Amino acid sequence: MKQNNPNYRILLLLLFFPCILLAQTSLSGKVLDANGETVPFVNVIEKGTSNGTTTDVDGNFTISVPSLPSVLVFSSLGFETQEFNATNGNAISITLADSAEALDEVVVTGLASSIKRSNAANAVGSVTSEELVGTTSQSTVDGALYGKVTGVNITSSSGAPGGGFALRLRGITSITGNNQPLIVIDGVYVNNVEIPSGLRFASGANSGNEENSGNRLADLDPNDIANIEILKGSSAAAIYGQRGSAGVIIITTKRGKQGKTKISFRQDVGINKIQNALGLRPWTAASVLETFGQDELDKYNATIAERGSLYDYEDIIYGETGFITETALSASGGNDKTKFYVGGSYRDEEGIIKNTGFDRFSIRGNIDHKISNVFDISSSTNYIRSNSNRSFTGNENEGGLSYGYTLAFSRPWNNFFPDENGNYPDNPNASGNPLFVRDKAKNEDTNNRIIQSLTLNTKLFTNDNNRIKFSNSVGIDYLSNETFVYVPETHQAQQGLGASAGFIAQGKNSFTQFNTQSAFVWDHDALDGDLALTSQVGLAYLYQESNLVNARGTGLAAGQTNVTLSANQTTAQGLSEQKEVGYFGQVEGNYKDQFIGTLGYRFDKSTLNGGPNKLYGFPKASLAINLANFDFWSLEAVNLVKLRAAYGETGNSANFGSTFTSLAASNIGGTIGQSVDGIKGDPDIIPETAKEFEFGLDLGVINNRINFEATYYVKTVEDLILPRSTESSSGFVRETTNLGELQNKGIELAINAGIVESENFSWNTRVQFYKNTSEITRLDVPPFALGGAGFGLGLGTIYIEEGQPVTQLVGNIDRNGDGVSVPTQVGNTEPDFQMGFSNNLTLFKNLDISFLFQLKSGGENLNLSRYLSDLGQVTADLETQAGQDRLLTPTNADRFVEPAGYLKLREAAMYYRLKSSAIKTIFGDTVEAVKLGVSGRNLFTITDYSSYDPEVSVNGGSGLSSGIEVAPFPSSRQIFFHLNVNF
């Protein structure tokens, strides 16, 4: 007889339950990434079940499984999913590899957060170290960015060693204010100033930005950089508030990795040669007689009889072969607590003009240290010393110094070389002998710079769904600059000054920037992990001060280079101090990598604004939708389809001094007093505000082997700060206040493709297209020629006019033939569009070939160098019918506007990597890798432009002067040989 007793079953369960527990096996271990860093919050799942856990903040995990062997599956966003077959109870160590989809995919979205590129709602440009310097040797960071990022327009303002570049991100954002992007290096706001030397007081140039100065981004060694992110528009840069109107360039330098110490050595050797010489006018006896008369013909004949040829002073001045060397040594490594990177480099670059050059010594130390499970600290220290001699080029007014001016009026049958006693003859047709200037005059600067950043991260709270941390960083950029300009009293133009002959200027300039940022960041997982929220709030502070002292003297004692030994002395000093405070908050949400949204706001106040304690707000909002991550998506070949939209606002404060009326010192009867300098300040001036809408589409095909990115933007800049004339009865000449509005519209397209990926051959290509158009949409003052951006309506200038592009070139033209000239647009410096085309090929695993073409279509330059050479009648084409016709054309802006489009082979290289077997045979186990290569920059240029280079800017990198040429330092072609060795 069978009995069913439920109590019996319960008793059996209680008896056997401890046995069941004993049958469970506990597995534990740690998860690391490829750099040896612990990876928190990795999903650890028993394969085929729902049994799982996640790693803690230190990458540790423990999971119980019923029996062994058991297969564990490790997965986390940004890493390849990995399986592990556990056959015993030993501690497990798992190293996750970055997923192919995640490589180079993290971009900045806030001051204390980042996001995968595949989820970003903005078009953020990114350049890796390999893209930046992997092809050829680069002198400066800005010059290395040519053609590598959509929406970035770069114009060389000088071909002198050490550069001089104007960077524009998505067009012009200010007419009288800053147009260069904010530069942030490892969290430090970096000074990119151009420093005047006082040269204009000797040359007769109009302003400090006509002195051919370089910008101080040249101090940074491009080889120290690991990655550059470029926030091109206000929708991406809004979190930087009133510093972000012209865009933001975020530079991250190289850091150490866990593992054995690795040493890298690099030696580059190269040459500099002029890229495009204009050549001599093909003189004949008949043309000399017709042009200059019998006296000059006699000199011509005497020179031909004596030496058999004319003097080619263009080749004599610009035809040097400059030698370039760069040596770099770095070491990196570390353990689970401390990682380090130490690097040093020295670059010595001679120019194409004798006695010109640029050298830079840089040493860097980056340290990351994990103090405990709660605290970690990072430090970056960079010391740089750089020197340059830029000689004398660019605009002047009969100073007899600028080579372009003197060559335009120098006749090639005159001998300018010194005699046996070292005496240089005068130039009979110009105010200076170019060989004397090259050999005797000096235009030098020296820079000592320290850039220091320090960041402390504190993990305040962690559980399964929340991670809260506090981050505090400080940054210091200190620059000490000295300038030296010397023109001997024996210089031709100086001799005419009598007792005031000779010129010297000594500059002592210092700049200090200090910035700090504190932020709380809260990561929260909601909806069973389907929704990830990242919130941040914080405070940013920036302090800047500058002290520029320039002592000048004329009437030098013979052979002396000391201001105190001059008869007439002047000292000028410029002091400025700025303080800014920003309060920011931002929330980012990510639902299953399907919907990614951001809302943020920043309040800023600045001593540059009217009402220094008034807060100005800058909002941002964005949304990205990844259609390929939805359940309904079934097209496996297309793995990314992202629609995105973003809006943001940024600001641009007035220039220092705009809020108050300046006083000038006056001397009346020996008594020092003060007077108003005629410029009225505006105590109510507000920042210019850029408001940008951005829309885009991103596609990824075949596991992102092919990527396509399309972006359209509209950026409106309101409350433009402009000058206007005032009533004479007010006692002022002009005032500066908010008076206009401009708009930029543009499109950016890019495609990346891994065309071939096989064992013995790979080919990757990238094509970029970008176009920007600008318009002055409101102007509360009459149209005007912008000071410092041209030479008036007679020769042509940038002209600010409602309904017209901000980059238009205008001159007074008599179109109707009635003798009445009116302001007329004769050109536009803005390109119709630009393109970049880069390719990287690898053959048989050891031979790398790469090249980068850059195309600029449309846009015009005002070529006033040809105006000068036409005046001197030495232009090379004057023997042609076109040249003769040009001489008959009225001398106005219309005559000198030329198309400035071009196609350049910007970079090309070929490297060979020695096979490991050959390395081991030659070097043993000491050397890991050896790479030999040859490369070039600016190898050729195809253009209709008649001067040295269609990339010109007479007024340096600031303002709107791009596209106006006056006697520049010619650009050069460079060839390099490379040796890279890794130990």
From TrEMBL:
Keywords: Cell outer membrane, Membrane, Signal, Transmembrane, Transmembrane beta strand, Transport. Its main location: membrane. It comes from the Bacteria. It is a multi-pass membrane protein. The keyword Transmembrane applies. Residues 1-23 form the signal peptide. The keyword Membrane applies. It is found in: Cell outer membrane. One of its GO terms (cellular component) is cell outer membrane. InterPro entries: Beta-barrel_TonB_sf, CarboxyPept-like_regulatory, Plug_dom, Plug_dom_sf, TonB-dep_OMP_SusC/RagA, TonB-dep_OMP_SusC/RagA_CS, TonB-dep_rcpt-like. Pfam families: CarbopepD_reg_2, Plug. Residues 119-248 form the TonB-dependent receptor plug domain. Belongs to the TonB-dependent receptor family. This is SusC/RagA family TonB-linked outer membrane protein. It comes from Cochleicola gelatinilyticus.
